[in-house]
Protein 1
Amino acid sequence: MRVLAAMSGGVDSAVAAARAVQAGHDVTGVHLALSRNPSSYRTGARGCCTLEDARDARRAADVLGIPFYVWDLAERFHADVVEDFVSEYAAGRTPNPCLRCNEKIKFAAVLDRALALGFDAVCTGHYARLVDGPAGRELHRAVDPDKDQSYVLGVLTTEQLAHALFPLGASHKSEVRVEAAERGLAVAEKPDSHDICFVADGDTAGFLARELGEQPGTVVDESGAVLAEHDAAYAFTVGQRRGLRLGRPADDGKPRYVLSIEPVSRTVTVGPRDRLAVGRIEGTAPRWCGAPPAGQVSCRVQIRAHGETLAARAEIEGDVVRVDLVEPAMGVAPGQAVVLYDDTRVIGSATISHTVAAATI
């Protein structure tokens, strides 16, 4: 099989490519140049898209003896991921750019180009498993629960999964690093990338401020009383506790949390923690890793990349997914993804558009 291995410059994608070679596939490595400023060179950056990473990927490909190319997808990435990220925050929502990158870049732009060039599959270093089920290819959780990335892959369709390879899904990260060292890959001890790749310093609020400028508003309590002023509503997210800079303490002396963000009036409402409890989640733009479920289904859902799963009942009506939680969840923000699971199998995902407080159900 002809395989295009997406090589980020990290240890995971390097070992995934190595395993594809070992499995007998005809492998070509490709590094995705996603930065609009290719001259940037940030040693120790928190992301995964620097010139240093590109060079690490090329060195790994040389060790493996496979052809290697760099694809410039900076403009596509900026339009589909960065601009989406900024506009979602401006609208008072909390997006996950990794899901959008998987949906729009790695398994759309890259996969489409790969298939057009005659490749059979795209291989990545994601920690997830692919299982051939009775209705086609299924996406399952990885063996290593601490590294499982099935949540950020919950946007993939059955057709995309049919042309994907995730060689690391049955391994633990410690095993992958040992294997990389044994194969002579210099990235064996390279730290994992983390945070948002296009916010290399980890300062999301600062990044958004540069993109959107100051948009002052007020912080109010549930009665509407003004507690403080802020520079921008987009700097807050539902469930946030720290950095509120309130002028006076709550009457009961307990901490206050962000309950909602109104982007038009730039009003941030805060209140006690128990007001964060959500009993129902509504999502739109569903993406199914297989046939859409019919009627109401019992499942477990995950609402954060590394969050716990929650027992739920989901019902699908057209492009709307309604999820009733068995036990309330705290701090669910519009814009996040809700991913549905049947045991380890990913059923699909939707973008959270609305939540209903547990106390009102």
Protein 2
Amino acid sequence: MKTDELVALLAAQAEPVPRHAASRRLATALALGLPVAVGVMAIEYGVRRDLMQTLFWPMFWVKLVFPACVAIAGFVIVQRLARPGVRVHRAWLGVAVPLLLVWAIGLASWLASAPEDRSAMVWGQTWRSCVFNIALITLPMFITSLAALKSLAPTQPAAAGAAAGLMSAGAGAAVYALHCPELAAPFLGIWYVLGMALPAVAGALVGYRLLRW
């Protein structure tokens, strides 16, 4: 068979990709992993007993909305990176802006507090376990999102893996917030950020090998 004939044969069998296929697959991956993540949190750590009371505390909503915004931004980024030729443009600002806001709130509250209270605002009670707890809760969504990416066509595998890690970690950190007793902004700005950065780095490393064509 000649090259021209082979190209014509392949072109004749080509079908258009359904619109929003990448978004649907990644959303399905999150929908499959999220209930498992909630189950891990509830069984392994437990929901805060005073959760209804904390709903009236502004810092609880900061702790919940901050990682949720990272998850949304990560979703926007990864569904773009999952398609060849689609640029991310300024979507990374969706990660940077909430991060900078939390750091600004944390620095302002740290400077406004008494010197003897500053150490507790940074270290809290759970700094030793927070990062790894977030990573563990993130794991189900991390696995499903990478599996979804594997079925798509990312041309930047490391960046796509990192974005999938960020998306999963943002959702995982938001789930962990339903258990976490910490409310100090400096704690969130350090340990929650590290907890979300760990899956992002892992996603870049795994994605570089797993998602290559």
Protein 3
Amino acid sequence: MSIQWKGVMPAVTTKFTDSDSLDLQMFEHNITAQLEAGVHGIVLGGTLGEASTLSHDEKRILTRATVSHVDNKVPVLINIAEQSTKSAIQAAQHAEADGASALMMLPPMRYKSGDRETVTYFKTVANNTSLPIMVYNNPVDYNIEVTLDMFEELLKCDTIEAVKESTRDVSNVTRIKNRFGDRLKIMTGVDTVALESLLMGAEGWIAGLVCAFPAETVAIYELQKAGRIQEAIEIYRWFLPLLELDINPKLVQNIKLAEVATGLGTETVREPRLPLHGEERKHVLNVIENGLKTRPTLPDYKNL
């Protein structure tokens, strides 16, 4: 199905069994909760989805299972995070064959490509698939920044349509709007600056804590879109301690623990990741417990 770059799109976690295989039953349970909350798309195989540990076959299984489960209710995106251009093209073509609606795409992995190499990488993949592409711009975690000048060149490819803006600099939303208008759609990618970015003009939110709290996340988006800013702020202020679990090297473990608390997942991760323990686990559980104790009553955000 076609994609509109707007709304809340969960970067979903990948569920595993105790024997380290894909847990599609729990995965689909979470996807169902996302759909019931009113999300606008599903993003597979991102950082939060433990992309670096998934085989190509597992990514294809997840894509097909999700496309089947959502049944054209929302678009399904798969992340492209590869070490070579050849592998990225192959992954993009597999995604298209498996029914994905669009791609989220990181710069080359491991090798710190220069500006010209990064632009060539994105353009080459774009020229070998018909799927729309959202460039994942996260220099904080991946050490490569896609600058506005680089986007000037990238936007010569019609299929490069959006950016997952994860620089942590909210003013970058305004820079992008000033430079490109509506040609480059902006999906904010950092939970702790999401509302600020939406208010400055981002069209949507690739979210993390939505995996455990889908209704609250969608409510914030819909309220601010309807101009009910103060209500959105109040929920966002409650949410912030939980959202901060997303800007941490252990974000996968943190969010999976939150999913357990809300009945939407397990904390099983794929090694070398290990479940949280000791004081670190105690702290995260305390944040989650406090959030659940003070969980807000939501307005009828689906009918604003």
Protein 4
Amino acid sequence: MPTVAQIEQALFQLAPKDLAFDWDNVGHLEGSPDQEVQRVLVALDVTENVVSEAEKLGCQLIVSHHPLMNVRWHQAEMQTLRPDRYLGRLLRRLVKADISVISMHTNLDIAPGGVNDALAEALRIEDPGPMPGDETGLCRVGRLRNPVKLSDFAGEVCKALHANGVRYAGDRPVEYIAVGGGACGDEIDAVIAAGCDTFVTSDLTYHQFLDAAPKGINLIDAGHFPTEDPVCAKIVAYLEKEFPQLIIIKSTSHKEVIQYFVEGE
């Protein structure tokens, strides 16, 4: 059976390590590189529910998108390994269960066939490609076959991504679209410069929505989880092709946690 190290190298063929942002933490983050693997669980995040699912399914490895540990997010928590703190408790559970973790993050955002190509495919955007002038390489742009109203497209985005709801602002017909899975609000000006009329991403602020119409851009915030989760199925398919002897499972315990209440519904 393949080892964790061999699976990590295969994943770096899909999403090369040198594509990751310099602050990021990608690759094999926990467990022994020599551990033999029979079952793999793929999930967007490593949560306590995901660890429980991996234990129940008898998985030796979790492959996640978001890093298990990252000093940008977990600087204080990474100073200890205490069971009364969330990260410490999670790490101790993984060690005790002998479950390894590999995380592919910003390198998978940028890589061909990664997060943003999976998002563009889910939204049926035609001929998606890198966004002109995008130095990060994150976003993808493409067109709809026919222009549609923003409200109609927002509904289609919600349905296609199985989101609990979407937030949107703007007043233009939708035709030339940029997508950026996860928190890509910093790319709005680059999206406008590329001539797009609509940007689908997540984690947008009030002021970004407020400025959307004056700047001539439609914004759709479809949620962090819904815009990135489509890549998990791509990882499953890739690993099944590379390691047909393995059992690869997409997590069913990890779902969108944000709920919406809309008055009158």
